[in-house]
Amino acid sequence: MNVHFMSQKLDWQTPDDVYGKLNAEFNFDFDPCPHNPTFDGLSIDWKESNFVNPPYGREIPRWIKKGYEEHLKGKTVVFLIPSRTDTRWFSDYILQATEVRFFKGRLHFDNAKTSAPFPSMVVVFKKESPNNGMPKFSLIDSKSCAIVKA
Hints:
alpha/beta
């Protein structure tokens, strides 16, 4: 694994402005990954519009799979996750998403002193099918979340 993308930290709190812009677009009604160690979002059904910023460790594939399964039930699932295009979960699930938005630059998470040591992406699973069986890809600004290039 490339040391530039490694991190001992697993809980990266979503920047308020990023969540606000995504919530304005998707009107979230559930977060299966709240900062509550006793809550198990993997073992329950999710609601209609879900925001998911999972722990960034070895458990991330379980969260991606669960989100994909919830999407198959007709739900909207929006992930904020590290951009790991070389992983099995990326090829197995992310390439079946409706949309993938890569951040231009590194995010500054709310509980961090500096920008993240890894690239990030927003992955959207919605009812409508992706174009030609592939997600729509775009590049978004890490500060404004505005689309830079579609």
